[in-house]
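The protein record filed below.
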Amino acid sequence: AISNPKQASSWDVGDVMAVTWGTRSIAGNVRISISRNGGKNYQGITTENDGVYDWAVTGPASVNCMLKIEPVDDATKGTTQGLFSIVDPTDGLVAYYPFAGSAGDMSGSGHDGTAAGAAPGEDRFGNAGYAYGFDGQDDEISIPDHADLQLTGAMTLSAWIKREGTWDQSGRIVCKRSDVSGDGYGMEVAHPSGKLRFHLHMNDSFSSTAAIPMDEWTHVAVTFDSAASKVRLYINGELDSEHST
């Protein structure tokens, strides 16, 4: 059986995926194949049957990805993994912060952040220095204001987060304010409910139905469809709720 990637997991283009599988029922070299259309077509490579293969994730992006591992000499004994997602973080990107040793913007737009109090830590893959920890009080990463970040129309905000410890106020993930115009937006974990919450123009707020779990990495995302006047909140790639603005 394939133990990694997990079903319903999400991977960015450029991530290194440690494809992991059990070798007991598979003999000889194996072929690892990926489908981006739910298993209709596969493309793959041949490698040794040692139970692990590090794959630098490539595009194109898809929410219908599947992996298949099969013996080169006997394709009938292959094993498949259920759907997972590949996301291209550079498609229409304004800013991108993988925290690869710094708070720099890797989108190429130059919206670099400055960490104040936030401590480097391990990311969801266990890589040291590829995440930041915040104390829930005054730790932050600040980014200079720019016209690129003054979003008033359609937008998407997303992040990998991990709730830990106790806290007595909402935990901001992304926050953009404008004291002059009233425009702004923000995504946070609400206190005390632990739900994902989105602020639009700093007046309207919309919350998820489910709470963000404690002590585990969770992917959260919010989309604002300005044409349809809809806000949608996602947890681990699944639509949690939809709201009219």
In short: Residues 89-146 form one domain. The mean pLDDT is 88. The chain has no helices and 20 strands. The CA atoms of residues 117 and 139 lie 5 Å apart.
